[in-house]
Specification:
228 residues, mainly alpha, single chain, disordered N terminus
């Protein structure tokens, strides 16, 4: 009896590790796609061309559409189409992302990326290992983020520097919470038997990708060294 329980526990751990490794691998590919697209857009002058002809806003709208389609129709779409949406978003995001090279020093971007990676790893580990039920925090985090985004848009017109700083810290804390929450959600989805599912890997990769990107942007905004 004890041997059977031990074997079942080991199989569960192996299945969970397989789920997380496949999810993180796809997340890494998404980040790599963003990095390559961003570097090319900056070094080739593509972003400058886009800014001059007004296409930047169309790219931004396209990103929003992709995220909405991904979120609303995820269950109905095939694994292949979901994968295309994920990497399409990563490339589009990379093009708009290139703007940070015009605003921040390159060494500062590198340091912030390393700091974000370390923080993300710690938060992901907490989410994976905690035994607490975090499901109730999903709604709280989503509402908090919505309020933060609305205030951010309003402050674009008001221009209050102190409010900008407060919002950066608040949204950073919100995405720290999302990282823990999303990792914990992935673990529970695996426990419910969704481990061998290509769509789940992409779903998890998209969630964690967005968490990482937003952590990076907020940390960069707070601590990044701006160009003179």
């Amino acid at each position: 009896m004890d041997s059977s329980k031990s074997e079942s526990f080991e199989n569960g751990i192996l299945s969970q590790n397989a789920l997380l490794s496949k999810t993180f691998f796809r997340m890494f590919l998404g980040l790599l796609a963003t990095a390559l697209a961003s570097f090319y857009s900056y070094s080739s002058g593509l972003l400058e061309t886009i800014l001059m002809d007004g296409s930047y806003y169309y790219l931004f709208i396209a990103e929003i559409i992709v995220v909405l389609v991904f979120s609303l129709f995820f269950r109905k779409l095939s694994a292949g189409l979901v994968t295309i949406l994920f990497f399409g978003y990563a490339f589009l995001n990379g093009i708009t992302f290139a703007s940070i090279f015009y605003v921040y020093e390159l060494y500062s971007i590198s340091y912030v990326f390393l700091a974000t990676s370390a923080l993300f790893g710690i938060l992901a580990y907490i989410g994976k290992t905690t035994n607490k039920d975090l499901s109730k925090f999903g709604t709280i985090l989503s509402i908090s983020l919505l309020v933060g985004l609305v205030l951010t848009i309003i402050n674009l017109f008001l221009g209050f520097t102190m409010l900008d700083i407060i919002l950066d810290w608040a949204i950073l804390l919100i995405f720290m919470g999302f990282t823990v929450y999303d990792m914990n959600k992935l673990r529970h989805m695996q426990e419910l038997g969704y481990a061998d599912n290509e769509k789940l890997y992409i779903y998890g990769a998209m969630e964690l990708y967005l968490d990482f990107i937003n952590l990076f942007l907020r940390i960069l905004s707070i601590f990044g060294k701006r160009r003179d």
